[in-house]
Amino acid sequence: MAVLELSDVHKAYHGPKGSVEVLKGVSLQLEAGDFVALRGPSGSGKSTLLWIAGALMTPGSGKVLVDGQDIYRLSTEGRARERASKIGFVFQQFHLVPYLTVRENIIAPSLAGGNGNGLDLTHRTNELIDQLGIGHRRDHVPSQLSSGERQRTALARALLRKPKLLLADEPTGNLDGENAQGVLEEIGRFAQAGGAVLLVTHSDQASASAKRVLAMSDGLVKESE
Amino acid sequence: MSVWGMIFKEIGYRKGHFLLSLLAVAAAVASLIGSVTLLEAHRSRTEKLMSDKRAGAAEMLAKKRAEVEASAAKMNDEIRKITKNLGFNILILPKDQNLHEVYAKGFGEKTMPEEFVTRLASSDIVVINHVLPSLVRKVEWTEQRRTVVLVGTRGEVPLANRNKMPEILESVPRGEAVLGYELHNQLQLQPGQSMKLMGRDFKVRKCLPARGNQDDITIWLNLGETQEMLDLAGRINAIYALECNCQSVDRIGSIRREVAKLLPETQVLEFQSQAVARAEARKVAWEKGMADVEAERKHQEKALAAEERYRKKMQREREDLAGWLVPLILTVSALWIALLTYINVRARVSEIGILRALGVGNSRILQLFLGKALVIGLIGAVVGYPLGFGLGLSWAGNASEAAALFDVRMLVLGIGLAPLLAIGASWLPAQIAARLDPALVLGEG
Questions:
Q1: pTM here?
Q2: SS3 state of residue B222
Q3: Among the partner residues B1, B9, B350, nearest to A107 by beta-carbon distance
Q4: What is the pLDDT of residue A77?
Q5: Average pLDDT of A75-88?
Q6: Of B234, B430, B203, B201, nearest in space to B338 by CA
Q7: Which of A57, A46, A59, A54 is nearest to A218 (CA)?
Q8: Residue A19, beta-bridge partner list
Q9: Of A70, A94, B143, B186, which sees the most CB atoms within 10 A?
Q10: Where are the domains of chain A?
């Protein structure tokens, strides 16, 4: 069963100057272990596709299945539960909570409740801190961290509940080459461990880390040449 | 990570926002508690003040009454001592006058020569100070169809061999009449007006005030004129001898003997004893004293009523002020809290977006904001209550009554109201936070 399956997904934005259709029937499938990079020019609909895949934006039409569950047939709270248990997010801007320490930021998703996929989240937090090499920053707040440390903290937070799908929007956009490489390697390890990754990027370095590269153009997704 | 842990972390991070919100809640609670305390202090002080003043007035009146009673007792004693050695009054009647008739009617029908008066006055008798001859008859006042007592008097007859003493009864000139109260009052007669009696014309000389006895239906005329009208020329039926002095134990016996020597055809009676004079004097003094006490009581009542009116007016003015000031402060505080919460939401959109993206539900986002409002409300009440209570006492100026004015119900109200105010004011911004579109928020980031 595919971890993520999009079938004929359409999405249009309605504005005062009329409607702009950014997704024109996108179909896509990610299996466990897939690490897919999605490239395309700005405004091509990459981020929109990511939001829709992450149960954050309702498509105009089409079907989105995450781990076999049609997520847009669920209520808002139901989709939140699906995100909490199955999907991890990483963003270019990190979006760390400024008043929480590294450890607290990583464990913040536990606010969503639930049993954390049967995990001991405190133990899992410590494991991720060690795994991502930010143990010395455990009790530091984001303002005391470097960009690389912030993104590794954000990645640890995304991986806390061992999601099946990791959605990353330009995760290396604010990082230097060395830090970007470290983050990409961690994402690669997640895929190798059986997770599915959809990574939106402009970066060649990031694309090179992916097993498969897709291109977004004219509202459709194509295999990159 | 718990919701409360996150709330307290955020409070610690955004201290300015927290303190400003706390200030708004504390101000609202302080204004409410302060106003209630001030009004309660004023009410309590008014109660005490009025109670003290009433007690003071009662005490003063009781003291005054006691003074009057003491004064009356003293006066009674003094009058008793004075009148013990003072003279008394006697009535000289014809010897053949039946005393039963005198006691029953107030006068006798028998007459005696007017010359008896001259004999008495020209004697060297020393036990009598004033001599008043009179002729009294009950007659029909045909012109007014009523029965009256007619008294002919020639005033006081000067005693020979004695210095002239102040007259105690004035004479009535011929052609004039002195009227008792019931007569002039019923007939609407006034001094100077004319009237007809037994075919003769008279001018009203004087109208007497009510005495409550036979005098009220009596007409006093000149003695000679009365004798003519009654066809009793040179006759009288009584001689009043007033202020008789006698140091002996059997004083009436002594006087009788003296008078008998001069007027053997007469008999002597005592009337209006010292006991009556004493009682009358005491009564007058008592009534005067009690009238003073009553006047003072009325004055005190008036002063107390004026004070009470003033205090109530002040209370009403303060209630009116609190009536609009407290709701105004509560409203401004609520708006201030709402604005601060909205600013807090705007500052935390990225945090809210990522939490939503990570699966944190709307209700949990709502809890983060409303939980913070609850904390602000509770701490605001804890700060605002003593502040308001202290200010209320300070404004009222009776800090010493803090224990008496402390009301646990107000404490409960303050602690209950403040979180409600904070949560109510934060409700809308919290709903906005809970409904933020994470895709939009994270996309903006």
A1: 0.64
A2: strand
A3: B1
A4: 85
A5: 89
A6: B430
A7: A46
A8: A14
A9: A94
A10: 28-48+80-223
How far apart CA B188 and CA B193 sit, in angstroms, is 10
Confidence (pLDDT) at B445 = 45
Domain A28-48+80-223 indexed as CATH 3.40.50.300:
yes
So what's the ipTM on this one? Answer: 0.88
What value does the mean pLDDT take over residues B236-257?
A: 73
Question: Per-residue confidence at B423, pLDDT binned at 50, 70, 90?
Answer: very high
CA distances from B291 to A110, A183, B129, B295, B359 (A): 90, 108, 35, 6, 92
pLDDT of residue A156: 94
Q: In what order do the strands lie in the sheet with A61-66?
A: A18-30, A4-15, A61-66, A69-70
Using a CB-CB distance cutoff of 8 angstroms, which residues of chain B are in contact with residue A91?
A: 354, 442, 445
Find the closest chain B residue to A112 by CA distance: B360
pLDDT tens readout for residues A146-164:
988 999 999 999 999 899 9
**Would you tell me which residues 32-51 of chain A have a C-beta closer than 8 angstroms to some C-beta of chain B?**
47, 51
Q: Which long-range contacts (CB under 8 A, 24 or more apart) does B106-112 make?
A: B106/B136, B106/B149, B106/B214, B107/B136, B107/B137, B107/B149, B107/B237, B107/B238, B108/B237, B108/B238, B109/B137, B109/B237, B110/B237, B111/B135, B111/B232, B111/B235, B111/B236, B111/B237, B112/B235, B112/B236, B112/B237, B112/B265, B112/B266
DSSP strand pairing (A69-70 vs B88-94): unpaired
The answer to whether the CB atoms of B358 and A107 lie below 8 A apart is: no
